[in-house]
Amino acid sequence: MKQQPKEHLKRSLGFGSAISIVIGTIIGSGIFFKQGSVLDSAGNSTLAIFAWILGGIITLAGGLTIAEIGAQMPYTGGLYIYIENIYGRIAGFLAGWMQIIVYGPAIIASVAGFMSILLTNFFGLGIEWRIPFAVSCIVLIGLMNLLENKISALFSVVTTLGKLIPIAAIIIFGLFWGNQNALGQTMTEINQSTGNFGVAVLATLFGYDGWILIANLGGEMKNPQKLLPKAIILGISAVLIIYTLITIGILRFLPAELIHQLGENAPAYMTTKAFGPIGGKLMSAGIIISMLGTLNGKMLTFPRIVFAMAERKDIPFSKSLAFLSKKGKAPINATIFVSILAFAMMLFFNPDRLSDLCVFTVYCFYLLAFFGIFILRKQNENRPFSTPLYPLVPIVAIAGGVFVLICELINDFHGVILFLGFVVLGLPIFYLVKRYYGEKI
């Protein structure tokens, strides 16, 4: 195992903060705004529900696999560190580069974009306000993350608890007051070119995405060998149950045909219809708070990858990007860097497309990590955590990852090539940076 650089981030995160970050980072825009696209691609409500369940199973298998790897490498950087220690320096760099240039900014821009849709509906404004709202949300959360990590972690705990209110209300109201049959609903008019069941599962994976980001905070946990696996497994399991119940609740309350017609406006319509104008506003506010918590989790974790890479002089402007504030030990310049890239993503891509492309890109490296568990099993007999039902669980994770890549290649070939191009661009940059610092590869 390679020796890691001396870290300066504070180890102040306990189990409550860790699992709140996992759940808070996962539950956000996806479960609310992907209902329509999942339903459209699946073709009927039964397959839509099954898509959410299958997406959760794939995610849980991946989480169980990564938990074993992460417990052996409890350092700041997460996937970036895992890939390097298993496959070498260049592969590790590309995993980190992918997250800071493509995946991180894209997912932040996507969440902020979905949140801006809800905000414009909330205030009754036109679509021209979406980008200003999205930018404002990123700036607000980014500023908070310039402070000590305890503040962002506390915000994650508060928003995680707060988001349970609208979620519980939607589940209870839908299950007990809905008069639709959640199973067997079909749409009379649907554009079949929008996708298929595979694309539906891909859409749900954006809703589940974010679980691995807690691994980026390994260097800031009090006891990462124990906390990291526990937070990942319990967090994903809880979200799987919640997502299934929400989907059934929504389908019991709103006909599939209406969800198809409403699209992105389905969450606002449902809350108003269920709880009246005032209650609908309060519920929409709760969902917005939920999404702010998700955005905070991503703004808390991605700059840590930039910091980890900059501290090792892997990227341009490393000295500046590795800067930490004196009091809070927060990666200030790294946070600003990620925010600027997210702003750029907003201008060129819509949130829905961004969400699919960022899931595809990260799953390319998830697959490498999933295969890596077999390599580590041969190298290390003593492990802080062992994946249950090995090797079945890693095989399920790998199969799910291959499924994701094939579906998105078929669904958006040009977007995939563009995003992979950004990743490959990192190679010449890496060699130039290393030549500048006089380091041999």
Automatic annotation (TrEMBL):
GO terms for molecular function: L-amino acid transmembrane transporter activity. It comes from the Bacteria. It is found in: Membrane. InterPro entries: AA/rel_permease1, AminoAcid_Transporter. Its main location: membrane. The keyword NAD does not apply. This is Amino acid permease. It comes from Lactobacillus mulieris.
